[in-house]
Amino acid sequence: MFKLLFILSAMLIGLSSFAQKKLCIAFYNQENLFDTIDDPNKNDNEFLPSAKKVWNTEKYINKIDHMAKVISSMNEQQAPDIIGMCEVENDVVLKDIAADKQLKKANYQTVHIEGPDERSIDNGLLFKASLFKLIQSKAISVNLPNTKTRDILLVRLEAKNKTQLVVLVNHFPSRIGGEEASEPKRIVAAQVLRGICDSLYNINPQENIVIMGDFNDEPTNRSMDSVLRAKANEYDLNNGNLFNAMYELKQNNEGSHYYKGHFSMLDQIVLSSSMTNCTGAICYDKSSANIYKQPWMVEAEGKYKGAPLRTFIGEKYTNGYSDHLPVYIMVTLKKK
Fold it and tell me: Which of 18, 84, 93, 234 has the maximum number of C-beta atoms within 10 A of its C-beta?
C-alpha cells in the first residue's frame, strides 16, 4: 500500500509540474536593422550600398547572424518564447532573423506592420508558433505635430491552454534636441499607450498585458511613472496602475543603453496587475527581470569598455551587435 501511495504521489507531482510552463519574454532594440534594397517610399538612404556606411550584403548578413546569435543564446540557449523588437525596417528583416540557422528550432512566427516613422524603422515581434497562435495584430498611431513617429504594435496571442496575452511593442520618440525639450513627445506617446491599456481594462479588468520597448525615458521619468503609471512596487497596483519590472534594476544603477559614460534603463518591460499579482493563468516570476549580457556582446577595452558592442560608431563599422542590451522577464503559464 505504501509503495502504491508513493507511486501515485510521484505521478501527481509530475502532472503538476507538467501543467505549468516557464516562458521567457524579451525585448531587444536591433540598432538600425535595414536590408540593402532601396525602398523609394522610405528614407532608407543611410543604409544602402551607395551610402557612406556602405551597407552591403556582407554587412547585412553579418548583422542578421549577430542578432540571431544573441537571441538564440538567451533563455538558456532556447531563445525567448516571445521577443519584441524595434528599429527594424520591414517584415523581410524579421523573417531573415527567424530563418537564421541559429533560430530554426525556435520556429518563430513574425509580426510586423508598416509604420510612418521618418527614419523608416518600425516595431516587430517574434513568437514561438509551437506555443502561441496569433489572434490579432494592429498598429496604433502616435500623432505628433510636424513629426512622424513609430506606431505602437498591439499583438494578441493565445497560448495552448487558451490563455490570451496582449503584447504592446513601443519605441518612444528620441531625446534628439535634449531630454527636456523632447519630453513632451514621449508624454504624448505615453498618453496613447495608457489609453490603450484603459480600453483593454474596460473590456476585461483582468487582461494579461505586457508592455515592452525602448522608451527613451527611464522608469523614474514622467512619461513612465506619472503618465503610463508604471510603478516600482507590485503592491501599488490599484486603479489600473501597472508594474514596471525594470524599476529595481534602475534603482541598482543598472542599464540597457550606454551614452557618454553612463548606463540608462531605457528598455523596459511593464506588466498588468493580473500577471504581477498572479490572479490569472500567467504569473510574473518575482524579481526575474534582467538585462541580458555576455562578454562577447560588449566592448572589451578602450574608452567604451563595458558598453554594448554596436554595429556602427558614427560612420565607423565595428561589426558588433546593437547599441542596446536585451531585457527579459520570466513568467509561469499555469493550467487553467
Answer: 84
Q: Which of these, 200, 188, 168, lies nearest to 270 by C-alpha position?
A: 168
Cα separation, 218 vs 268, in Å, equals 8
Rounded distance, CA 198 to CA 168, Å? 13
Q: Where are the beta strands (DSSP E) in the chain?
A: 21-33, 82-88, 108-112, 122-128, 132-140, 143-144, 147-148, 152-159, 164-171, 209-214, 230-231, 242-244, 257-259, 262-264, 267-271, 282-284, 290-291, 312-313, 316-317, 327-333
Backbone angles phi, psi at 46, to 5 degrees: -70, -25
The C-alpha cell at 329 is 522577464
Distances (CA, A) of 186 to 166, 178, 193, 248: 22, 12, 10, 22
**pLDDT of 190 over the 80 cut:** yes
Residue 123 backbone dihedrals phi, psi, to 5 degrees: -100, 155
Strand-pairing partners, residue 171, are 214
CB atoms within 10 A of CB 147: 13
pLDDT score recorded for residue 234: 66
Are the CB atoms for 127 and 157 separated by under 8 Å? yes
Q: What is the spatial distance between Cα 143 and Cα 81, in angstroms, rounded to a whole number?
A: 31
* Nine cell digits for residue 99: 530563418
Domains contained in the chain, CATH given: 20-333 (3.60.10.10)
Distances (CA, A) of 177 to 2, 182, 280, 334: 74, 6, 43, 46
**Per-residue pLDDT at 13 exceeds 50:** no
Average pLDDT over residues 96-120: 96
CA–CA dist 64, 102 (Å, integer)? 10
Mean pLDDT of 210-235: 93
The angle, 0 to 180 degrees and rounded to 10, between the axes of the packed helices 57-77 and 91-99 is 60
pTM above the 0.85 mark?
yes
Q: What's the Cα-to-Cα distance from 229 to each of 103, 133, 190, 199, rounded to whole Å?
A: 36, 30, 9, 15
Strands 147-148 and 152-159, sheet pairing: unpaired
